[in-house]
Amino acid sequence: MRLSDLRGRTVAVWGAGREGRAAVTAIAAHGPADLVAVDDSANFLTLPWEGPLAAAAPLVTGEEGFARLAAADVVVRSPGVPQTHPWLVELRRRGATVTQGTALWMADHGARTVGVTGSKGKSTTSSLISHLLTAVGRPNVFGGNIGVPTLDLPEAELYVLELSSYQCSDLTDSPRIAVVTSLFPEHLDAHGGEREYYRDKLNLLAYGPNTVVVNGGDPRLLVELGDRAAVRAGTADSVNVAGGPDGTPWFHRVDRPLFPRAVLPLVGRHNEGNLCVALAVLDALGVDLVDSKDTLAVAVAEFQGLAHRLTEIVDPSGLTFVDDTLATSPYAAIHAIDAYDGRPLTVIVGGNDRGVDYSPLREHLAERELTVIGIPDSGPRIIEALDGLPKVRTELVDDLTDAVRLARQLTPAGGVVLLSPAAPSYGRFRNFEHRSEVFAQAIRTTP
């Protein structure tokens, strides 16, 4: 379904945030017979609905909203509306036509789009793709799940989109190049279960992309992919990391060396995999990686890691504090812990408790020696899951500031204090930025 298909139809936009506002503006320009906006979660944080928005679509709040959604020919939901929302479940039971702004946009722009999703790595990988394309003279517009709704993007010859599982779920067109960086259970409360989450995530691939690029080292992703044709980055047949001319690890295109691993400023093997995927995408777009290797090496060296993802804060004490507050699952925390293998390590975990299974974290730490400090709300349950591991010291404290104070006492000189909470921030913090601010303030002020 395209935006132009909404002409002359009754449309209800569900959500009054950035995505909903962008949808109302875009749809109004295509002449619907009737347009209304619905917000079932209005609160003191809700932005005013006034001016051109109110003129284009009156805003309905509260229980009346469902009646307006049910009466519409097409419902355009914001990504934040979960699949498990009772209204959405009932609308689907009735056979209502439900879509999203990203799906409407993709119908018109998919042939010019690289779409990147994944349980972890989608932000870094999509940023790398956009950055490297610009470096080799391929201008592009970067958007999606980074705060810029697709319906607000300017016209361009090439787009690189970071796409969440929520955005992927309603697509009926795939991008030209569909990219998946990793797959593990995440956001299960919003999708309804593990199978449903994988289904929604991999819907990105369901409508005939020209090329599929995946992380060939991700076991769950490879199981779900099956025998589907795809570029498996990280393997010997694609972009990979292997011994180079000087005996150190190098990035290669198949067997052709490109540049040393040391050029990439991001720590962790998962970030090696992210760059392999990004380079494989450039290869699929016709960029000659071997001829462009020097330009690419400079661009990789200049790449700035994303804030709140393994962001290192060097402290006068000699400890290295690491802000990885966006690691909101046990699998993300596992990747972060692996990035500091071989160094004395204290990990701070805990946040909003969504009932996630922490047994994978226990299995991963079975032979590791480190300290884990738990903070509310899920910290006690994580610590309980790690109980009995012979080399893992566990502690519980009341808040993040106390965790930093205790970490200073327990972490040996030259060690790492890693905030990789394996849980979301909301509940105790306004958002993940607020959690990072508290962490940084604690580093500055605790003795």
UniProtKB/TrEMBL annotation:
Family: Belongs to the MurCDEF family. MurD2 subfamily.
Main location: cytoplasm
Annotated protein name in UniProt: UDP-N-acetylmuramoyl-L-alanine--L-glutamate ligase
Binding site for ATP: G118, S119, K120, G121, K122, S123, T124
InterPro entries: Mur-like_cat_sf (IPR036565), Mur_ligase_C (IPR004101), Mur_ligase_C_dom_sf (IPR036615), Mur_ligase_cen (IPR013221), MurD (IPR005762), MurD2 (IPR043687)
Enzyme class: ligase
GO biological process, one term: cell wall organization
Keywords: ATP-binding, Cell cycle, Cell division, Cell shape, Cell wall biogenesis/degradation, Cytoplasm, Ligase, Nucleotide-binding, Peptidoglycan synthesis
Function: Cell wall formation. Catalyzes the addition of glutamate to the nucleotide precursor UDP-N-acetylmuramoyl-L-alanine (UMA). Cell wall formation. Catalyzes the addition of L-glutamate to the nucleotide precursor UDP-N-acetylmuramoyl-L-alanine.
Gene Ontology, cellular component aspect: cytoplasm
Catalytic activity as recorded in UniProt: UDP-N-acetyl-alpha-D-muramoyl-L-alanine + D-glutamate + ATP = UDP-N-acetyl-alpha-D-muramoyl-L-alanyl-D-glutamate + ADP + phosphate + H(+); UDP-N-acetyl-alpha-D-muramoyl-L-alanine + L-glutamate + ATP = UDP-N-acetyl-alpha-D-muramoyl-L-alanyl-L-glutamate + ADP + phosphate + H(+)
Domain Mur ligase C-terminal, chain residue ranges per copy: 309-422
Compartments where found: Cytoplasm
Source taxon at top rank: Bacteria
Species, as recorded: Micromonospora radicis
Pathway annotation from the record: Cell wall biogenesis; peptidoglycan biosynthesis
